[in-house]
Amino acid sequence: MNPAAISRFLVVGIFGAALDLLVKHWAEIRLGHPDDFGGMPSVIVIPGWLQLEFTGNHGAAMGFFQGYRWLFLIVSIGAVIFLGALFTASKRTQWGYQIILGMLLAGVLGNMYDRVALGYVRDMIHIFPGHRWPDSIAAHLPAFWTMPEWFPWIFNVADSFLCVGVGLMLIHSLFDGGHARHPEAKPNEQPTVD
Questions:
Q1: What is the pLDDT of residues 90-145, one digit of tens each?
Q2: 3-state helix, strand and coil shares in percent for the chain, rounded to the nearest 5
Q3: Pairing state of beta strands 50-57 and 121-127?
Q4: How far apart are CA 83 and CA 41, in angstroms?
Q5: Strands (DSSP E) along the chain, which ranges?
Q6: 166-170, long-range: CB within 8 Å, 24+ apart, which pairs?
Q7: What's the whole-model pTM score?
Q8: Are the C-beta atoms of 154 and 109 separated by less than 8 Å?
Q9: How much is the pLDDT for 180?
Q10: Kind and range of the H or E element at 135?
Q11: Which residues of 126-150 are buried (b: 16+ CB within 10 A; e: fewer)?
């Protein structure tokens, strides 16, 4: 594999995970410890749109499946292996794809570190705090949406890498899918019709 491709994948993955862990460390020191659930101080970044408040998540995204730490660790290890396999199969010129895989690796590693070292994931980003759905809409929200806020969940930088990475992966697959099905003809070679 091309050293530049390896660098793209690993640098994005390692630096992304390091950024996530630095933000988590800062949030833990500045905003309190997750054992103190409730009444924690928060930092308003953009009033009504973004605030930081520290909490510990013992489950998956959006707080689902609380207490399944070892299952999440196994899934995380599988995800790292899968991302490595996708990277290995990538072509030398797919630098954008390799960066996306690095973002996904950063997200997996950041949250996996927390689960191994702490037993939970540190979260601190709360978007749209205080914005609530009108009662007419809140009455029709799914059962798992236990709060009438627009987005009641708190997440972290690793989660952001994962969400953005998955979104970019879907966009990439839409635009790159045609190339996989219809490889370009070699120079001076006319495509044939069977």
A1: 887 788 999 999 999 999 999 999 999 998 999 999 988 877 767 777 677 676 66
A2: 55, 10, 30
A3: antiparallel
A4: 37
A5: 42-46, 50-57, 121-127
A6: 166/104, 168/100, 168/103, 169/100, 169/104
A7: 0.76
A8: no
A9: 46
A10: helix 135-138
A11: bbebeeeeeeeeeeeeeeeeeeebe
Cβ-based burial of 163 (10 A; exposed 0-12, middle 13-18, buried ≥19): middle
Residues that are catalytic: 123, 159
- Which amino acid does the sequence have at 44? I
pLDDT digits (tens, 9 = 90+) for 4-25: 888 899 999 999 999 999 999 9
Say yes or no to pLDDT of 36 above 70.
no
Three-state DSSP class for 117?
Answer: helix
pLDDT above 50: residue 160 = yes
